[in-house]
Write a structure and sequence with these properties.
This protein is mainly α. The chain is built from 20 helices and no strands. The protein is elongated.
Length: 447
């Protein structure tokens, strides 16, 4: 039987959940440190960041492609008060528990931090992240908003709100929220980068480019704004320009996980699979909570038949983004390839509960039953093949006019029909052999 690992190209805009350990960044000097803290999970906040140039108001050398600093333009940013000592201990405990997968323990720790310090916007934000991961979007939005009431320019909570709106298909609402916030706090460069990223997702490439360039006029070495330019140029199909900006950004800070992620994406585009996998590994190493990088790494390992490691990566992705359909589909495939049939079915069923009109889930279920055969608990080979046939039929019905003549399901259904015929013949032979044996035994007993 042919290889049943179908390549889907499930490259997602995983509208991800924000990191718990980001350091506050209210001005240009601290913004890059915060970005690094986010990409490294916060353990080394600022320790490896490339120090940005000081803002003097003077024009940089003419060779700079970004223009001149405008640090004095815009309203001064609101000060960020440090967390109280007791709250800080609880916050750090919650961050540790979250990284270990103990979401309930993390939630209790963050609640304790908030009780100790009601103005701890970082703890309020972290509660939003945990609730978001647990699928409680309304409550997560409430905590993100509470964090913004304490710290009006807190970019991470703004990003969290936008992520939920986009996940819900409310792109207009995401823009209506983010645009005035970014315009009000234009000195917050990380907020500007997040705003530019939103504009890229909304396909407003020129606007995104302008926002990112404005941030780079303030700090030509600000990596998140460089990344926004990379995304904008990739979306616009300007690959050489995207590669050029990516190279400059890596020269500024090669400890940024997103840079290595996009480097891997470009290597994939150029069919350099081995190098791409290494880039995705580097991104995950730098930021273990980087769901998109783990997803890409898991998918590439799955395609390369490195099934066990692929499963481990995709299990980690599910903990970070449990409510994404694409994650459940990929995780189900990983369980299937490691012959964990019931877990595979549970993942595909979960995907269908999230989105009932999902042809790919039925396709994957069909592959699972076809591969498992009589190994599937409670089914014999013939029953499993029958279920595979049913699932492929459902897949084709849901695809409707979108299905092509050379869709793999055609060949798989032909294989299934042949396998069913072979199995029926085998069972018939066994039945006749058993009957002959019974008759022989009966005749022998009569004598």
């Amino acid at each position: 039987m042919r290889n049943v690992s179908k390549q889907r190209g499930v490259l997602l805009a995983l509208v991800g959940l924000t990191s718990l350990g980001a350091t506050a960044c209210g001005n240009k000097e601290s913004a890059e440190a915060s970005a690094l803290a986010e990409t490294t999970g916060g353990d080394q906040a600022g320790s490896e960041a490339t120090p940005p140039p000081s803002v003097t108001g003077e024009a940089p050398p003419p060779q700079s492609p970004w223009g001149s600093p405008e640090a004095d333009k815009g309203a001064p940013l609101p000060p960020r008060k440090p967390m109280s000592g007791g709250a800080r201990d609880d916050f750090q405990d919650g961050t540790r528990r979250a990284r270990e997968g103990d979401l309930e323990g993390a939630r209790r720790a963050f609640e304790a931090a908030i009780n100790d310090d009601a103005n701890s916007y970082e703890a309020l934000h972290a509660m939003g992240v945990i609730l978001d991961r647990q699928g409680q979007e309304a409550q997560a939005l409430d905590y993100y908003r509470r964090a913004l009431r304490v710290q009006p320019d807190y970019e991470e909570s703004a990003k969290g709100i936008v992520a939920i709106y986009l996940r819900q298909g409310q792109s207009d609402r995401a823009l209506a929220f983010m645009q005035p916030l970014a315009q009000q706090w234009e000195r917050n460069l990380l907020l500007q980068a997040y705003y530019a990223d939103l504009l890229v997702q909304l396909n407003r490439i020129d606007d995104a480019t302008n926002v990112a360039r404005a941030a780079l006029k303030r700090d030509e070495r600000f990596v998140p704004a460089m990344m926004s330019l990379v995304r904008a140029n990739l979306k616009a199909g300007k690959l050489e320009l995207a590669d050029s900006v990516l190279e400059q950004a890596l020269a500024v800070n090669d400890k940024n996980a997103q840079l290595h992620y996009y480097k891997g994406k470009r290597q994939l585009d150029e069919q350099r699979l081995g190098e791409a996998i290494q880039s995705f590994r580097k991104a995950v190493e730098l930021d273990p909570d980087f769901a998109e990088a783990r997803m890409e790494l898991g998918l590439r390992l799955l395609a390369g038949a490195n099934y066990q490691e692929a499963l481990e990566q995709l299990q980690a992705v599910e903990k970070l983004t449990p409510r994404l359909v694409e994650v459940q589909l990929a995780l189900g495939d990983a369980y299937r390839t490691t012959r964990q049939w019931e877990k595979a079915k549970a993942a595909f069923d979960k995907a269908l509960r999230m989105r009932s009109d999902l042809p790919q889930a039925h396709y994957n279920l069909a592959l699972m039953y076809m591969t498992a055969g009589g190994e599937y608990p409670g089914l014999d080979t013939l029953s499993a093949l029958g279920k595979a046939k049913e699932e492929f039929a459902t897949y084709r019905a849901k695809m409707g006019s979108r299905i092509t003549r050379d869709d793999p399901s055609v060949a798989y259904l032909d294989d299934i029909e042949k396998s069913i015929a072979r199995e029926q013949k085998r069972l018939e032979r066994e039945k006749k052999a058993a009957e002959r044996g019974a008759r022989t035994g009966s005749e022998g007993g009569g004598q």
